[in-house]
């Protein structure tokens, strides 16, 4: 399941992937992002990756077109996951994006949301 929640007024979107991804789910995400980009040049984004399941093959060419036509649309991107391969993969692809990207474990989802919205983290004293 791929879901999106947008705060269009704030220029913020949160995507959650938990299992398989269908073409209809992907289309709803792209529509929500495009709608938010009508009001903002760039969006702050949180991507919560709980479980990566099968992906409908029709999504891959659409995703390539999306990335080719949407350049520099992200400002802060928080990638939130406990899957061990996610952070190293993001480090490989981060230089291709004109965005500040940080990875967080699922236990720090609220911190990731705060960082994505503001670009800074206020940490409580230990």
**SSE order, one letter for each helix or strand:** EEHEHEHEH
The strand line-up of the biggest sheet is: 1-2-3-4-5
Task: Please count the helical segments.
Answer: 4
CA-CA gap between termini: 36 Å
Strand content: 25-35%
List segments where confidence is low: pLDDT < 50 over at least 5 consecutive residues.
Answer: 122-126
Organism: Novosphingobium ginsenosidimutans
Protein name: STAS/SEC14 domain-containing protein
Pfam family, one: SpoIIAA-like
InterPro entries: SpoIIAA-like (IPR021866), SpoIIAA-like_sf (IPR038396), STAS_dom_sf (IPR036513)
List keywords for this structure.
alpha/beta; Transcription Regulator spoIIAA; five-stranded mixed beta sheet; 4 helices; 33% strand; globular; disordered C terminus; STAS_dom_sf; SpoIIAA-like
Description of the molecule:
This is STAS/SEC14 domain-containing protein. InterPro entries: SpoIIAA-like, SpoIIAA-like_sf, STAS_dom_sf. It comes from Novosphingobium ginsenosidimutans. The model is unreliable at 122-126 (pLDDT under 50). By secondary structure, the protein is α/β, with parallel strands linked by helices. The protein has helices at 23-36, 59-69, 86-93, 109-118, and strands at 2-7, 12-21, 43-55, 74-81, 100-104. It has a single domain (2-118), classed as Transcription Regulator spoIIAA (2-Layer Sandwich), CATH 3.30.750. Helix content is 34%, strand content 33%. The protein contains four helices and five strands. The termini are far apart. α3 (86-93) links the parallel β4 and β5 (100-104). A five-stranded mixed β-sheet has the order 1-2-3-4-5, sandwiched between helices.
């Amino acid at each position: 399941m791929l879901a999106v929640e947008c705060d269009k007024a704030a220029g913020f979107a949160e995507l959650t992937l938990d299992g398989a991804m269908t073409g209809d789910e992907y289309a709803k995400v792209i529509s929500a992002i495009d709608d938010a980009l009508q009001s903002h040049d760039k969006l702050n984004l949180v991507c919560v990756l709980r479980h990566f399941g099968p992906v409908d093959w029709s999504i891959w060419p659409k995703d390539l077109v999306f990335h080719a036509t949407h350049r520099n649309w992200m400002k802060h991107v928080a990638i939130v996951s406990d899957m061990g391969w996610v952070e190293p993969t993001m480090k490989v692809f981060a230089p291709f994006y004109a965005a500040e990207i940080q990875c967080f474990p699922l236990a720090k989802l609220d911190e990731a949301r705060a960082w994505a919205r503001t670009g800074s983290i206020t940490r409580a004293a230990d």
